[in-house]
Every structure is written in structure tokens, then in C-alpha cells.
Amino acid sequence: MHIDLNAFFASAEEIRDPSLKGKPILIGHEGRSGIVSTASYAARKAGCHSGQPMFQALRLCPEAKVIAPDFSYYKVLSVSFFSYLKEYSPIIEQASIDEAYVDMCKPLGKCADPIGYLRSMQFRLKKLTGLSCSIGIAPTKWLAKMGSDLHKPMGLTIIRRKDIGKTILPLPIEKFWGIGKKTCPELKAIGIKTIGDLRDRLVQEDEDAMRILGKFAFTALSWMSGRGDDKVQVEADDPKSIGNSTTLPIDCCGYDEVAKSVSDLCEEVSERAKAQHKAGFTITLTVKDTAFRLHTRAATLKE
User: Fold this and answer.
1) pLDDT digits over 66-111, tens only?
2) In which band, very low, low, confident or very high, does the pLDDT at 173 lie, cut at 50, 70 and 90?
3) Distance CA 136, CA 42 (A)
4) Which terminus in the chain has less CB density within 10 A, N or C?
5) Could you tell me if 84 and 78 are in contact, meaning their C-beta atoms sit under 8 angstroms apart?
6) How far, in Å, CA of 80 to CA of 72, rounded?
7) Cα distances (angstroms) measured from residue 127 to each of 1, 40, 137, 157
8) Which tens digits make up the pLDDT trace of 176-212?
9) Among candidate residues 33, 29, 36, the one with its CA nearest the CA of residue 51
């Protein structure tokens, strides 16, 4: 099972202030450098979404209320959420503050009415905490994640391997969890508009599709075939990288103007690496310009 809290930060604010329910809410900071952390469903209808610059979101939905995030409060609700899941299964992999993979083989194995069982789980969570969630049930983690994303809020989607052809393959390529916003336009440019189109091209070992996806092409094909990772990892994976980023309050030009910010980020990354007893060989710097284009450079050190 993949279980995902719906618009978590916005829902948390609605729990704290019920007068906000049904209204457009943007969680984040106002100003030139503000980024939307979460948009309520009312704000999403106007085109707002997470990761969007706040000023752009407010252009789309000027009546939205901007609320600064309260991560300490969200953490308390998150702990309640994960404690609740443990009542159903001890085998839980936390994917983020508001989502998890849960091994439900034992609870559902002898269940006469699995859909009723899962619906009861959803509504009981809503009653106890005020939080709504969407659930995907499938034989692999990718399919479960795709299932939970299909119907929000309070969705429940069961995907068997035999359902992939009618449920997953017709979806637009943008819905493929694991393929980013940067890669989707490249795939569409070569005629890949749906997940099924991608599957067909990879089966044919299409050179263009293979070039765009690189090594990930083999993983993607495995996922679309109903194979792939199906083990819930109770222990967190060992991190492969440590990074930090910031958005500057004003547009800058030249290294001198950003040197202090770069130095501060280096200090933060260094402290986190030391705390985890990690050493790295490759340093990567990514800069996003005023047109929101990414520029990335990396250097690998000898020691």
C-alpha cells in the first residue's frame, strides 16, 4: 500500500482553523523569493501547485490566503499519522513527512472485504486526526504510488498486474512517477504522449527514447511491466548525497553578490555530512536563473 496525506500542510492549517476549509490556501512565504510548499485543492483549481513561485501563484489566485509554514506543528501531525499506520501493520517505510509504503499482506490476506477494510481505515483516520488520505494498493511500490496519485482526495485505487493496460498505460506521460518535468517535454517532442507510448518505444528499443532516459529506461520498462521493487524497507536508506539550497531575495549578478550565500550553504552541507559521518568526492553547484532555467556544474575531487 502507498498511502499519501492529501494537501497535508494545507489540511493541517484547516484543522487548526476550520474557517479555512474549502478556501484557497497557499503554504509558503510571500515576497519575491517565496515558493509554494502546498496549495489547497481550491487553489489548485486555479492552477496553483507546490514548487511554484509564490508571486506566480498569487497572479493565478489573488484571493488565496498565504500562510507561513509551521513545520513543528506539521511534524506533530505526521507522528500521529505514522502511529496510526502502526495499528494496521508494523512494516512501514516512510517516504516523506506525509506518505508511506506499508506491507499490507497480513492485514488484507484473509480479509473478506478488503475495499471496506481500507475505506474504514481512511474514514477512521479522518475522524481521529482530521487528515484525509489517498491509498494505492498494488503488487509493486511504483504501481501503488501511481494508484494513490490517481484519485485525490480520499481516493482508493487497487491495481493488479492485469489492470496495467487499462489503468496505467493510457495516462499522459506527465503522470509517470519518476520522470521529471524536464524530461517529459523531450519525450513528447519525439511523439511519446502517454505511458503506453513510452512502453511501446522501449520494447522496440527505440534509440531516441533510450537516449533520453539513459539507464533509467530499463527500470521504467520493468515498472510498466508490473515488476520492480516490492519490498517495504523499514530502515531508511543510506543517503547517496547531501545537499542544501536557498532562494535569494533579489536578483544577483556576479560571484561577489552570491559568495556569502554559497559559503553558508557549504557550511550547512558540511555540518550535515559530519553529523552523519560522511565524506564526499563530488561537489555539485546548481544555479537557477531569473527565467527559472537550471545550470549545473560538478567537480570530482581526488580525495
Assistant:
1) 999 998 899 999 999 999 999 999 999 999 899 999 999 999 988 8
2) very high
3) 23
4) C
5) no
6) 13
7) 21, 20, 22, 21
8) 999 988 899 999 999 999 999 999 999 999 999 999 9
9) 36
Q: In whole angstroms, what separates CA 216 from the centre of its chain?
A: 18
Rounded Cα distance between 77 and 83, Å, is 10
- The three cell numbers of residue 31 are 515576497
Task: Name the 3-class secondary structure at 73.
Answer: helix
How many angstroms separate the CA atoms of 58 and 48, rounded? 8
Active site residue 268: no
d(C-alpha 34, C-alpha 111), whole Å: 47
Segment 108-115 long-range contacts (CB within 8 Å, at least 24 positions apart): 108/137, 114/158, 115/156, 115/158
Q: For the stretch 217-250, what's the b/e string if a residue is b when 16 or more beta carbons lie within 10 angstroms of its beta carbon?
A: beebbebbebebeeebeeeeeeeeeeeeeeeeee
Give me the catalytic one of 30, 99, 174, 207: 99
